[in-house]
Design brief:
mainly alpha; 2 domains; rod-shaped
Length: 334
């Protein structure tokens, strides 16, 4: 850690040292705790469950049933992992978990926090530069906002979502889905049948998924493919934009792409605080040892000075006493 700080404070070697440090088991457990801690929970809840997202989800969902359901989906760790599974099956869950909390994510986040390579890496993971520009256009333009508002807020989608999500069956299904693996398979069947499950598993779990998502983002072929996979054109665009777009976009952009998350991750990983803290600690230890050496050397000096001075005084007194004796001896013989 000392060499780590020295490199961190002063050299490019520190970067590689931090990467190794972040890639070690210590940082793994640290990141797991940091990412899985209440800070990250509240952070993600604030990011995902902010008033913007609430109003956005209210518009997207359009009903009290789906509002409370999505609030639970968006607001709880269970629904977080559930949505991860919904968006991309257990493989996507483990993939995202690995991205956020595993060795892949450790090195991934290290590169993400420390280098432009991770940016391009995450861009490729999310869906290539095409996907990045596509998501940027989707997230960053009023066109997509109005488009999502029209698509999500229309009576067709409202009635569709009310039937799909807002029915008592769906409520109990989502409750089970949030709490159990059975609901996962239930939602998989509900979203697109066993064909959809195997399709999404293959899509998420293989290189086909990469090309599939790239084509999905970049071409109408994948749109029609997802439409068949999810069950209908409405459900495809709805789930893709609802589940995969705003949430994933806002999640990934805020988590991966925003300066807030960068500074948050830096603070979480232990960057500025640990740097300053360890710098202060190392500096204070150095100063302490310096002061100890200085105080000790001063004590030794004063001790030696006193010893030398006392020896001088002793010899002076001895000489003085001796000379007085000699004087009195020579002066006054009896």
């Amino acid at each position: 850690m000392k060499s780590e700080l020295y490199r961190e404070v002063g050299s490019n070697q520190m970067k590689s040292e931090l990467n190794r440090e972040v890639g070690s088991n210590q940082v793994k457990s640290e990141l797991d705790r940091e990412v899985g801690s209440n800070q990250v929970k509240s952070e993600l809840n604030r990011e995902v469950g902010s008033n913007q997202t609430k109003s956005e989800l209210n518009r997207e969902v359009g009903s009290n049933h789906i509002k409370s359901a999505l609030d639970r989906e968006v607001g709880s760790n269970q629904i977080k992992s559930e949505l991860d599974r919904e968006v991309g099956s257990n493989q996507v869950k483990s993939e995202l978990n690995r991205e956020v909390g595993s060795n892949q994510t450790k090195s991934e986040l290290n590169r993400e926090v420390g280098s432009n390579q991770v940016k391009s890496e995450l861009n490729r993971e999310v869906g290539s530069n095409q996907m990045k520009s596509e998501l940027n256009r989707e997230v960053g333009s009023n066109q997509i906002k109005s488009d999502i508002d029209r698509k999500v807020g229309s009576n067709q989608v409202k009635s569709e979502l009310n039937r799909e999500v807002g029915s008592n069956q769906m409520k109990s299904d989502i409750d089970r889905e949030v709490g159990s693996n059975q609901v996962k398979s239930e939602l998989n069947r509900e979203v697109g049948s066993n064909q959809m499950k195997s399709e999404l598993n293959r899509e998420v779990g293989s290189n086909q998924m990469k090309s599939e998502l790239n084509r999905e983002v970049g071409s109408n072929q994948v749109k029609s493919e997802l439409n068949r996979e999810v069950g209908s054109n409405q459900m495809k665009s709805e789930l893709n934009r609802e589940v995969g777009s705003n949430q994933i976009k806002s999640e990934l952009y805020r988590e991966v792409g925003s300066n807030q998350v960068k500074s948050e991750l830096y603070r979480e990983v232990g960057s500025n605080q640990v740097k300053s803290e360890l710098n202060r600690e190392v500096g204070s230890n150095q100063i302490k040892s310096e002061l100890y050496r200085e105080v000790g050397s001063n004590q030794v000096k004063s001790e030696l000075n006193r010893e030398v001075g006392s020896n001088q005084v002793k010899s002076e007194l001895n000489r003085e006493v001796g000379s007085n004796q000699i004087k009195s001896e020579s002066c006054c013989p009896v």
